[in-house]
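User: What would this chain look like folded?
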Amino acid sequence: MQPSPLTDHVPLEHRSFAAVEHLAPLLALFLPMFGNVVGALAAWLLLRERHPVLDAQGKESLNFQLSLTLYSLVGAGIVLFTFGLGLLLLWPVFAVFYVMQFVVMILAVASTLNGKPYRYPLSIRFVR
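Assistant: Here's the prediction, encoded as structure tokens.
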């Protein structure tokens, strides 16, 4: 699918708003468990009607946070199902996802501040 001419670059006047959308999941630092999803959702809902690129980047951030939450819940289910033994195998995966969340968030902010839209890796497109 071809990107729309309105969403294939981030206009200068909307770059800081796009960066806010990518940084909003940091709400998880203050609201554990689902703060990352709440932050991404709130930023997207507040900014999506200003410009199509803000709508697209907000969806990207929200979809990535929803995907990470789903992956974490599946991992937690495996740990519970195995009565904690799964944690012996999955703790490196949890650690990688935790660090990856911050790394890709920084990459997304840098990309949008440079005028390029960002696509998150391992993201399921829940919101289209």
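The chain has a mean pLDDT of 93. If you want, I can go into more detail on any region.
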